[in-house]
Amino acid sequence: MAQIKNRLTPFFENITFDREDNELVLNFGPQHPSAHGQLRLMLHLQQEQIVKAHPDVGYLHRGMEKMAENMIYNEFMPTTDRMDYIASSSNNYGFALAVERLIGLEVPRRAKVIRMMLLEINRLMSHLFWLATTALDIGAMTVFLYAFREREYLMDIIEGYCGARLTHAAIRIGGVPLDIQDDFLHQLRSFLNKLPQNIKDYEDLLDSNRIWLMRMEEVGTVSTEMALSWGCTGPMLRASGVAWDLRKEEPYELYDEVEFNVPWSDKGDNFARYRIYMEEMRESAKILYQTIEMYERCVKDGQTDLMAHAPKYISAPKLDIMTQNYSLMQHFVLVTQGMRPPVGEVYVATESPKGELGFFINSQGGPYPYRLKLRAPSFWHTGILTDLLPGHYIPDVVSIIGTTNIVFGEVDR
Amino acid sequence: MRAYTPKDNVQAKAYYTDRFYVSPQVPRHDVSSDEVFAADLETISSKFTVNESYIEVGQMVVYINASDIYGVLELVRDELSYTQLTEMSAIDWLAKDNTFEIFYQMLSMTKRKRIRIKYSIQNGQAVDSVNKLFRSADWSEREMFDMFGIEANNHPFMKRILMPYDWQGHPLLKTYPLQGDEFAAWYEVDKIYGKEARDIIGPEIRDTANIDRYDSERFARLGFEQPKGTKITGDEEPTVQTYQEDGGVFLITKFDKDASKIVDDPQR
């Protein structure tokens, strides 16, 4: 086919000078290696100082809420993977929990333990990824390589469980599809035994590093009022003086049975956020040790159920489907037509690695949700850049975007 | 006669529903069953009209009048310690009674409670922006405008946020098809190449399962393979496929379909 001439004029200059007041408008992105995705920032500059920032998002908009309205509930599960693709099991979990609350399902204990393991592994993966990329943006290549190495071990463990490295779809509405594999606990334990030393290695490289401190301390300070007003959650909020962790405050699964601390700081700057990510990794490791014990206790007590028993909504175990006629019929209806949750509305929030991940579902009793709203934390962590960036300098933009830990699959959905 | 498909809601619908199926309702509890919520409701209803209120899945839902929203949110923030606007958006009820339902999801960190404040507006009516109370509403209201076309009064920058600025239509309306409309199909062609290139390029194919059986450039037809670029007429002979290398391979002689014997005795 012949080439058709296009109308895109060559746009080689990223800067406009046509202002009279010395103000310069700089387009940061949408393709910028340190923007962690398709973020376009229109920055108004006086010299190197930002006087006005205007984040522009939507370059990764896939219309997930629209897709959800046209899919049965189970069909939507793999789509949630593509929100925060750094920690996809936490999205799966948020959606599964929302539907379970809507139906009023109770998940078997063994499934709960496996879910908690997956969630905390995902949190570690996400935080390691955050550390790696942010350190790379600041210029610390070594930390990037170290953190990616550790993340690779975790991805191997996850791959052993569900077969995927990034888009796990490892959680089902009503439980988990599989029991953990034979060497899962062994691999996890040997990883956790090494983790404290690894975290210490990162800290040795960064904590007293002069460049790191200059780029992080007193940069990007978010006050408590600002964080609350902008709807910040997760590490962004905890770094700004509010010790609020949904795992502690509104416990789901078995988080009320495990012991862990909620690290927080009242500094609000980049460095406080960095410290919180590091401490949270230690807390996740602590939780994981406890879940291993809980799992072993489940095995000892003979709790083998992995999916909730609710024939109206959840397919029976494979053995029943293969041997009992009625289970097979139920399964066929649930796969072809989908479950029909009761009429009602639910908003369920979980603590994803980035912050509060919420699912609002309005069900009208049909197999498709009437309205599904995805509340992604990164959306507001990007919005806050409007108020956060003015007053800072160009190099600070990179480190601030880094510590807000935004993922564009989640911002644009 | 062709089955009638309603135009006011073009989303996927259940293709079969039992005649006698009655869907259950998520249990709703009276607000007085929770003392924290009861006190909150008391404060709200002493100053504003509360049309309906109940507790659903552990969260209080309060229906108010559309004009009261700024005052109510100010009240719950300052006096009832609901310091965070977690989420806000709309639900499309245009097909039912030509209204939108707007919800505001509030969180109190000191009480560890969540409430949802809701109201209805007519189609075309604007809402009051709460951007001055909660900065998070800045982006939420823009998203709501983008997705539903509901404008917010007194908003500093009422522009689209996720879709391009020059987009037409609001994607989350029930009247908007999943694959996009006519405008969506031509948007990129018009923008990049100009309207005059429409005939050459054709509309954007937004159906991911689309197959063009007359296009031999990009699609192969199993059993009817033709060389790339061949003009497909539709009356091609089936391609005979043989899976045997010339001269045979180790232990297998040349496979001949006609010489082979089909065993049709199940008891063999």
**Oligomeric state of shown chains:** heterodimer
The coarse overall form of chain B would be elongated
Sheet bearing the most strands of chain B, described? 6 strands, mixed
Mean pLDDT over the residues of chain B = 87
Class from helix and strand fractions of chain B: alpha/beta
What tags apply to this protein structure?
heterodimer, A: 413 residues, alpha+beta, Cytochrome-c3 Hydrogenase, chain B, four-stranded antiparallel β-sheet, three-stranded antiparallel β-sheet, 17 helices, 7 strands, 49% helix, 11% strand, B: 268 residues, alpha/beta, Beta Polymerase, domain 2, six-stranded mixed β-sheet, two-stranded parallel ribbon, elongated
Task: Provide a brief overview of the structure.
The complex is a heterodimer of chains A (413) and B (268). Chain A is built from 17 helices and 7 strands.
Detailed description of the structure:
The complex is a heterodimer of chains A (413) and B (268). In chain A, 49% of the residues lie in helices and 11% in strands. Chain A has 413 residues and is an alpha+beta fold. Chain A is globular and about 80 Å long. Chain B is an alpha/beta fold. The mean pLDDT of chain B is 87.
